[in-house]
Design goal:
The protein is mostly helical and about 210 residues long. The longest helix has about 50 residues. The termini are far apart.
Length: about 210
């Protein structure tokens, strides 16, 4: 999510996502963009809780976050306006993430957070440095920065072994669907032919 968030920040800065009449909303969007990263961290915990039939825990965390968010916004919005509301959104999201991690570990399904987060965090950090240096010291346009960010992140995530065996299998399947769609049709048709031509033991006995 960080690469997407960084590219969105450049879109905001260069006014590619809005006209001049929406200039006052730039700060709010720059704050809320970080919520994409927080959601990426807490979503796996809710998937785990749902898989182990702990939907009640998910509902409790969600309702508690809702009540806390309403209370904090009621106190902060009159003073800090939309900036306070955006900051509260991030704060409550972090609490939800911590609660999700605690709940999964409490039920014996502790997620390997460092193993999951560290490769992508390092790749994202270096990708951000590359984009920052290109943006500051070169005259690269938005499209060039976008392509450089995507390419550098893909290379770095492979170097840091952030792509597991399951991920590589999914990538191969997706590339096969995109670049060789005919192979899947042939495999399905051959599978159907094998099923149709196979003779069951009961049919052999009846024929005899």
């Amino acid at each position: 999510h960080y690469p997407l968030r960084r590219q969105r920040q450049m879109c905001i800065r260069d006014r590619l996502l809005y006209g001049p009449g929406f200039g006052d909303s730039v700060l709010a969007l720059q704050i809320l963009i970080w919520n994409c990263l927080i959601m990426a961290m807490n979503r796996p915990t809710f998937y785990v809780l749902g898989a182990i039939n702990r939907q009640g825990t998910c509902a409790l965390i969600t309702m508690s976050a809702l009540v806390l968010s309403i209370a904090l916004n009621y106190a902060a919005v009159p003073i800090w306006s939309f900036v306070g509301s955006g900051a509260i959104t991030l704060f409550v999201g972090l609490l939800v993430t911590l609660a999700g991690w605690y709940a999964t570990s409490r039920f014996g399904f502790r997620l390997p957070v460092m193993k999951l987060v560290l490769p992508s965090a390092l790749a994202s950090l270096l990708m951000g440095v590359i984009i920052f240096m290109m943006d500051k010291y070169t005259s690269s346009g938005f499209v060039m920065l976008l392509l450089a960010g995507v390419f550098s992140y893909i290379v770095l995530i492979f170097l840091f072994r952030g792509i597991g065996a399951d991920d590589r299998s999914l990538i191969r399947q997706a590339s096969r669907l995109v670049f060789h769609p005919g192979e899947n049709k042939e495999e399905k048709s051959s599978g159907i032919d094998v099923q149709n031509t196979a003779v069951r033991p009961e049919q052999r006995t009846a024929e005899r």
